[in-house]
Amino acid sequence: MQVNGDLFIDYYDLMQLSPNADDDTIRRIFRHLAQKWHPDHQDGDPERFKCLVEAQKILTNPVTRAAYDVKYQKFWENKWKMAAEASGSQGFMDDKNVRERMLSLYYVERRSKMHDPGLGEMEVSRLLRIPIELIDFHIWYLREKGWILRLENGQLAITASGVDQVENGRLRLSPDRLIAAHGSDHERNGGEAHSESDQSLPAHDKKLLDFVSKQSHSGKI
User: Fold this and answer.
1) CA 171 to chain centre
2) pTM
3) Which tens digit of pLDDT belongs to each residue from 178-190?
4) Domain boundary at 85, 119, 142, which?
């Protein structure tokens, strides 16, 4: 994750804190996490511990925190742009659509940042506006399918199979390609509404093909 070419660490995410957390809360959470990740601990993590110390130092100083929050805001503005690119729809989504949007986020992240392609669970939760506790199931599913994997830094990134899943899904439902395919079949069949290949499409795709075709012929698209 980078801002203006410099390595950016989401300290709020690292410490599982709200950006509005007060100093007492920051220090209390720091003590808990520092004990957990201290290098002397059996399951300690020196690098994570070092980041925690830096996070506590920056976030408990009004001056350094204000400067950090400016970068933090820009970081999330960039993330929201990425989320908008991954999905143009709003409103309630069922589980399948949630996973499709998650996979799209991982796809966009790897495509734009091959050197740093991972996303944390908290990032995905915030971008999709879904409670963090509901994300675990979808992550389990995507990992079991082999579409995402866990990186050494603990973040998750899309795999080659995941990229194929995203691109194949979009290719099959791309309006431009549906129009082109329908137009060719229409001409070959002397103006008939559908070719034999249309009959093999799933019901949802047939409806989409009919809609795109009607809109195309009416001049609306």
Assistant:
1) 19
2) 0.42
3) 333 344 444 444 4
4) 85
